[in-house]
Amino acid sequence: xxxxxxxxxxxxxxxxxxxxxxxxxxxxxxxxxxxxxxxxxxxxxxxxxxxxxxxxxxxxxxxxxxxxxxxxxxxxxxxxxxxxxxxxxxxxxxxxxxxxxxxxxxxxxxxxxxxxxxxxxxxxxxxxxxxxxxxxxxxxxxxxxxxxxxxxxxxxxxxxxxxxxxxxxxxxxxxxxxxxxx
Length: 182
Prior knowledge:
- This protein is α+β, with helices and mostly antiparallel strands.
- Helix content is about 25%, strand content about 25%.
- It contains five helices and seven strands; from the N terminus they run αββββααβββαα.
- Helix 2 (about 85-95) packs antiparallel against helix 4 (about 145-160).
- The relative contact order is 0.19.
């Protein structure tokens, strides 16, 4: 009984009880994010016509594109990122949500128990000063966080890949095939 009284007396002197458990179950540190490059690869669908391409957006604004199938422009091309869309991408990535996401959102996985058939895959590879992340996302997966598709679309917008995927070449007329700019 004396021990309980001593403990109660010791605890009553604390301004808050939260101090005794601080650090007991620490969360991993959330790293500061400044990306060096982010890659998005979109794969084709089984029966539908889905574009197959890869786009890499570098932190300094350089863009690399390689189109393979169901795209307006095939082959390798280089360009510059769209500045307003690049700002939005930086803001989305700075939230560090990718850091906490699972590595796979594909059928038959824990995070994707229900899915629609004939979807494409989007693969994101992020390289940053704080961490690297690789995520495979099946577009028909109902268990993927909505933010994942938003980030994929933001990468597409920053790259301005509509000029190659859909043929809106007027957006960057100074870009030529095989890495040569005019």
